[in-house]
Amino acid sequence: MADDLHARVASFLDRFAKERDLALPPLGDDGVGRIQRGSAVITVQVMAAQGVLMVHARVAPAPAAGAEDLLRKLLTASFTGTGDAAFALHPETGEVYLRVLRTLYHLDYEEFEDLVHPVATVADHWDDLLAHA
Q1: CATH code that applies to domain 2-131
Q2: Which of 47, 74, 85, 130 has CA atoms 20 to 30 A from the CA of 2?
Q3: In the chain, what are the domain boundaries?
Q4: Which of 127, 65, 128 minimizes the C-alpha distance to 94?
């Protein structure tokens, strides 16, 4: 089953690249692929054991202590300004990520595209914005 999920996402990533005339490396054996959008690097990660696809992009380093205004801004944006994605703090590094999760079991190409494109667009905007904050 895990091999089927991996192969399906690999074919989605390949199609995504071909439709946009992008030269992307194939999905790795570890289930991870990457897409560059402007200054943002979007990671597509097959989490087969959980039956989930995670699409995420780092948008900022870990916030400093006392960064309540920044965190409020990110949480407010997550309410309606990030599509299905949301900002989150990486559990190990504390870095700020934009991420979305979807079940792999009924995922089709159109939904894959609807996950990757908005995360890429929003992450590219926010990583630039936060770099100058």
Answers
A1: 3.30.1460.10
A2: 85
A3: 2-131
A4: 65
